[in-house]
Amino acid sequence: MTYRDNQLDAIGDKTRRAILARLRKGPLPVVEIARGFSMSRPAISKHLAVLKKAKLVTDTPDGNRRLYQLNPEGFESLRAFFDEYWGTALVAFRARIEQSADEDDDT
Amino acid sequence: MTTTAMTDSEIDRPVRQSITVRASVERAFRVFTAEFDSWWPRSHHIGTSPMTKSIIEGRVGGRCYSEQESGEDCPWGSVLAWDPPHRFVIAWQITPEWKYQPDLAKSSEVEVTFTSVGEKQTRVDLVHSHFSRHGEGGDKMREGVGAPGGWGTLLETYASVVNS
């Protein structure tokens, strides 16, 4: 599984999207992130591990706990996915159309 | 990092791509749509079986789908607007989980326009918009466009984080 697949899978889950939205205001420890969710703290930690693997969040030690924060770099590459997706398609389109420009132009 | 509330238009800021090709508007439109299979990258496929052919049916309500080695068609969109040779709009019916989305209200839109910019020179502008629709949960209360947790919200919010 590629890095990009990881990212798309990571945001394909409602809980993980909610976690990311919560981290928008700044870094938080797991106990704060878990507040307001009906699931257990270990379950939230599992979701955080998925987000970390997808490089959408990073964690740093803070005393005896860890603080989770958004990783702007990861999100930039996520957005870049669609730029690349359509960019690749249009380049393929141009290659196709210009390869046979003289044969079948109808103007 | 900014925590300012974003407007709907900021959240749904589209992805835009343009390219200029050596072809008339008529030919550019025809190759893009009727001859879609001749250029569409085989990697751009959501199905479980390898793509053998990719089709856009040229009419409002037409299906966009791929034929697969398994014999089963893989749908991924439908034509919302059809104005040859200048413009068409497709519903991008793919969930953030990369599965087919039958519900148009939960699909984003891809608009492609063809503009003559000289003799046998056509600019193709592609705009992929309404990403936030993908983030709306089916069984849950309908989330507003600006609600946290939507796919589009994420894409746009974090683009703004990066740029701030």
The percent range for helix content of chain B is 10-25%
Task: Determine the oligomeric state from the structure.
Answer: heterodimer
- The fraction of residues assigned to DSSP E strands of chain B is 25-35%
Distance N to C terminus of chain B: 6 Å
From the alpha carbons, calculate the radius of gyration of chain A and give it in angstroms: 20 Å
Distance between the termini of chain A: 46 Å
For the biggest β-sheet of chain A, the strand order reads 1-3-2
What's the helix count of chain A?
5
Order of SSEs of chain A: HHEHHEEH
Largest sheet of chain A: 3 strands, antiparallel
Radius of gyration of chain B: 17 Å
Query: Fraction of residues of chain A in helices?
Result: 55-70%
Major sheet attributes of chain B: 7 strands, antiparallel
| Count of discrete alpha- or pi-helical segments spanning 4 or more residues of chain B | 3
The general outline of chain A is elongated
What does this structure look like?
The complex is a heterodimer of chains A (about 110) and B (about 160). Chain A has five helices and three strands; from the N terminus they run ααβααββα. In chain A, α1 (about 5-10) runs antiparallel to α4. Chain A has a three-stranded antiparallel sheet with strand order 1-3-2. With about 110 residues, chain A is α+β, with helices and mostly antiparallel strands. Chain A has a single domain, classed as Arc Repressor Mutant, subunit A (Orthogonal Bundle). Chain B has a single domain, classed as START domain (Alpha-D-Glucose-1,6-Bisphosphate, Chain A, domain 4, 2-Layer Sandwich). Chain B has helices at about 10, 25-35, 150-164; strands at about 15-20, 50-55, 65-70, 75-85, 85-90, 110-120, 120-130. The longest helix of chain B is centred in the C-terminal third of the chain and has 13 residues, at about 150-164. The interface between A and B is large, with 41 and 46 residues.
